[in-house]
Amino acid sequence: MEKSKVLVVGGTGYIGKRIVQASLAQGHITYVLQRHEIGLDIDKLQLLLAFKKQGARLVEASFSDHQSLVNAVKQVDVVICTMSGVHFRSHNITMQLKLVDAIKEAGNIKRFLPSEFGMDPARMANALEPGRVTFDEKMVVRKAIEDANIPFTYVSANCFAGYFVPNLSQLGTLLPPKNKVCLYGDGSAKVVYMDEDDIATYTIKSIDDPRTLNKTLYIRPKENILTQMQLIEKWERLSGKKLEKLNISAEDFLASMEGMDYASKVGVGHFYHIFYEGCLTNFEIREDGSVEASQLYPEVDYTRMDSYLNQFL
Ligand SMILES: NC(=O)c1ccc[n+]([C@@H]2O[C@H](COP(=O)([O-])OP(=O)(O)OC[C@H]3O[C@@H](n4cnc5c(N)ncnc54)[C@H](OP(=O)(O)O)[C@@H]3O)[C@@H](O)[C@H]2O)c1
Question: Which site from 42, 88, 127, 148 is most exposed, i.e. has the minimal number of CB atoms within 10 Å?
Fold first, then answer.
């Protein structure tokens, strides 16, 4: 089967750059949107040029110019959007509605993957304020996609390792704790931790796969389903040092939101759903016809979290 041509929108972003790399690595003709709004951001420009060197095609377009988006979309079969969605960086999820309009007008797209890559927003209808904005906005984009009859795959990628693993899932740091670690409740909720490069690999594998058409693709490989306590124990084994555990009750954790800035409140809300409610694993994947990535693509040797943590020794 001929491989689809892919356009990555948001290709210089945190997950986007990995998706560009995975698309090239899996042999897709890969286009990356180049926006003139990047202005003087020399790092973005250099990254775009590095993609070009590796064979990517840069396509100029702007979210302020509908026709330019239509023209970009018309060159490919598949569009993957990795628009920003983390409040402490920037959050522009509903900007994708412009891309949905362009895809609708272009009429040629065989698959659209909107910017998701986290918890499944369809399962977060009862999420707390203000963090629920992430899920609500992703659902607005889903509705627009489905109203326009655009073929889709939604990728639910669970916890990005970079944000959740070396820090043993502590808020406000990306580095391993030295002496003490906060344990959410008794640390027993099952969480799924994923290396971002693996997320990109699975994502690209799904784009030409009829089994993922109009479905949610959950990335939940068995050995990466861990509790926070299991993650801490892995680090303790690797580092040879025991950490003092500070148990935080759900009430105290939620009360900690008081006085925080907006982005931090969003983060606390998301952590609450993940680590106290177990929202990533408290459902069976197949119950609504959804699919799981490591079952569809057993050939992917996904990164285990021991080996991810090893980098931090
Ligand atoms: N599961 C998890 O743990 C987790 C963690 C983080 C993020 N996520 C999800 O992953 C997705 C991507 O997040 P990210 O952190 O990778 O994003 P990011 O790096 O902050 O931004 C991605 C890209 O969004 C584009 N962008 C930002 N502002 C824009 C604007 N005003 N107009 C047009 N484009 C704009 C830029 O694309 P250009 O390349 O064109 O400049 C940027 O590179 C989100 O849906 C987020 O919720 C999940």
Answer: 42
